[in-house]
Amino acid sequence: MNKDIQFEKNDIIFNYRVAIIIRNDKKILVQNDDRANHYTLPGGRCELAENSINTGIREFKEETGIDITLKKKIGILENFFTSNFNGKKYHEILMIHEYAFNDDNFYNKSLITNIEKKKKEHLSYIWLSIDVLKKLNFKPEIILDMLESKEFQHYIAD
Which H or E run contains 81? Predict the structure, then answer.
């Protein structure tokens, strides 16, 4: 049974998701999907009865096989958008948390691969600076502003 917190009502899809930030000096780990024309943070949907911190840990482990630990909570983004993949409208609550690798050796890898069978051939993870990401197509763009703040942030993006 799928426990993901996602449902559709009146042609709008609701998502409850977590975005994972991992910093390495002045760079962050971003996800690139070769089917999309943008970069984003790794992450995934929360499951019923699962808190957002544990969602980040579980999702990253499922996607990469790598263990991470929460460093701090960054913020919440109420995100309204139309998907490039299916053209549907979304209402998303996105929890944004910063994590750290449990094994410091992963900070030395220039590329981290996805091990999930269904996504393996499409997703990869690379280190990019915020300055570079500002010049690329990074979604949702408002997260780049949130990364530079020292305080917990709450944004609404539509």
Answer: strand 68-82
